[in-house]
Amino acid sequence: MNKPKRILIQMAMFDEARPLREIFNFTQEQFAHDSVLFDLYKTTVDQNILYLVIPKKCLRYDVSRVGSLMAALVAWAAIELLQPDLMINMGTAGGFQSKGAKIGDVYLADKATYHDREFHPIRDAFKKYSVGDYPVCFDEKWVTALALKKGIVSSGNRMLLIDADAKQMEKNQAVAKDMEAAAIAEVTELKNIPIIILKSITDLVDIKQSSHEQFDQNFHLAVEQLIKKAQGLILLLGK
Ligand code: ADE
C-alpha cells in the first residue's frame, strides 16, 4: 500500500471519538454543504491530513446514530467530499470469551461480513451477497507491532445476540460483532478505497451478563485501549 496522504477516520459515537480528538488536536471544520449527515474534524499528523467524521446526533432522541444506515450514508458522503486515500473505521465491538477475547482487546479486521442480512436463503449468490465478505486492508506487521488481535468483524443492527445472528456469525467465523464495519466496507469497496477496521471489545456476547450492562461498565476502558492502538497505527502509517 502507498503511504496515505488523506486519511478519513469514521466513528459512530461522539464519546468514542472524544479522546482521539484531544490527542491529535482535531478542530471542527465547517464545509460548503454543511450537511445534516455528519460532523467533520481535521488535523495533520506527519504531513498527512487526518479527517474525522461522526454521524450528527439524532436530535429527536439525543443519541449517536449507531447502525449500518447512517454508517453507509456518512461513508459515501464523506468520501465524495474529502476524496481520501484511506478509510479507517474504529469503534467498539462485542467479542467472544470462547474465542479468547477479553475486555479492552483491540482487533484489526482481516475481513468484514454481515450476520443479519438475508434475502433468499437458498440461492447461493444471494447467500454470499448477504454476508458480503468485504476486503479490508490488513498487515500482520501492524498486529505484531501494536499487540493487536485479528480476525473477521461481523456487523448487524442489533447489540444483543440472538440465536440467528449467533449461527450466522459462527458460519462467518467472526471474532468481533459491531454495527457499522461491513456497511462502511461495502461503501469503500464501491469507491475503491482501502479500509482499515479497528475495534475494541466492550462486552463478551457469550457470557451471562448482558451486553448493554457490560458496555456501560467497560466503555471507558475499551475506548482508552482503542485510542492507544489507533495512535500507534496512525504513527505507523505516517512512517
Ligand atoms: N458495540 C459494542 N458492543 C457491541 C455488540 N455486542 N454488538 C454490536 N455492536 C457492539
Summarize the SSE layout with pairings:
Layout: E1 6-10, H1 14-23, E2 27-29, E3 38-45, E4 48-55, H2 68-82, E5 86-95, E6 106-114, H3 124-131, H4 140-146, E7 149-155, H5 163-172, E8 174-178, H6 181-191, E9 195-204, H7 211-238
Parallel strand pairs: 1-4, 1-5, 5-9, 6-7, 7-8
Antiparallel strand pairs: 2-3, 3-4, 5-8, 6-9
Helix pairs in contact: 1-7, 2-6
Bound molecules: adenine.
Adenine is lined by residues 92-94, 159, 177-179, 202-203, 205, 211, 215.
Q: What this model shows, in words?
A:
37% of the residues lie in helices and 27% in strands. With 239 residues, it is of the alpha/beta class. A 5-stranded mixed barrel has the order 5-8-7-6-9. Strand 2 and strand 3 form a beta hairpin. Helix 1 runs parallel beside helix 7 and helix 2 (68-82) packs parallel to helix 6 (181-191). The two termini are 12 Å apart. The model has no long low-confidence stretch (mean pLDDT 95).
Short description:
It is built from seven helices and nine strands. It has 239 residues and is an alpha/beta fold.
Distance between the termini: 12 Å
Q: What's the main sheet like?
A: 5 strands, mixed, barrel
In percent terms, what proportion of residues is strand? 25-35%
Overall pLDDT confidence: 95
Strand order of the largest sheet: 5-8-7-6-9
Overall number of strands: 9
Task: Note the overall shape.
Answer: globular
List the ions, cofactors and other small molecules found in this model.
adenine
Tally the helices: what do you get?
A: 7
Helix content: 25-40%
Whole-number radius of gyration? 17 Å
